[in-house]
Write a structure and sequence with these properties.
Elements lengths: L1 H22 L4 E6 L5 E7 L4 E6 L10 H9 L2 E7 L15 H14 L4 E7 L1 H12 L7 E5 L14 E7 L5 H10 L4 E6 L14 H13 L3
Parallel strand pairs: 3-4, 3-5, 5-6, 6-7, 7-8
Antiparallel strand pairs: 1-2, 2-4
Helix pairs in contact: 1-2, 1-6, 3-4
Length: 224
């Protein structure tokens, strides 16, 4: 009963959080190195003992996560939205395609700032990078993992997140790949298929935006 009440409170509180998210202080620009010699530029929202890294899709950038990052920051998280190498002021290291290294760098930077647990939310290209990063880090470095229409990775069975949420549109072209990746991922995990055919962050511009936002926020704030 307590769990149900908690989930209802989260869902009903989203509308109330909208003005709070707008009231969150503007993000602070931060940067940090990647292991292969690159530089990651990012926007940091909020404060708190828990952190979330946001990894964008190919046609987006760090600013695309601002609305959701504001909601998460209003819930007491530190939200870190990164620009991948080749976007904005971020630059590649030895491998221009090693997007996973940017995610790993962001996760470790938050831990170095004293954040106790770090989750990752990635969409499309960023979802694939987040998933790949979760196969490379040590157990415990990534808490929860949200993969929004992620591009496939070679070994989803090696994910080292405490819990993973896959989300995709039921009729999008990548949906079969998402289902196959989900089937191979370790427990605990969950799959949500939304109505329509929009891909990854584009879902935020559809009538499924509220459901998508609720699902992500509920998953991140839940203690389990």
């Amino acid at each position: 009963m307590a769990t149900l009440a908690k989930r209802l409170a989260v869902m009903l509180g989203l509308f109330a959080l909208a003005p709070l998210a707008a009231a969150v202080q503007p993000p602070r620009d931060v940067s940090f190195p990647s292991a292969d010699g690159g530089l990651v530029d990012a926007d940091l929202y909020g404060t708190g003992a828990r952190g979330v890294v946001f990894a964008h899709g190919a046609v987006f950038n760090k600013q695309s996560w601002a609305p959701l990052a504001g909601i998460i920051a209003a819930r007491g998280f530190r939200a870190l939205a990164i620009d991948f190498r080749g976007y904005g002021r971020s630059r590649a290291g030895s491998d221009p395609n090693a997007l996973d290294q940017d995610v790993v760098a962001a996760v470790r930077w938050l831990h170095a700032q004293g954040v106790q647990s770090v989750s990752v939310v990635g969409g499309s290209m960023g979802g694939g990078a987040a998933a790949q990063a979760a196969t490379e880090v040590a157990p415990g470095e990534i808490d929860k993992l949200v993969l929004l229409s992620p591009v496939p990775i070679a070994h989803p069975e090696r994910l080292k997140a405490a819990s993973t949420l896959y989300i995709a549109s039921r009729n999008e072209g990548l949906a079969p790949d998402v289902r196959r990746q989900y089937a191979r991922a370790p427990q605990p995990k969950r799959l949500i298929l939304l109505d329509g055919g929009a891909h990854a962050q584009h879902i935020f511009n559809t009538d499924q935006a509220q459901r998508l936002t609720e699902a992500i926020v509920q998953f991140l704030v839940d203690d389990k």
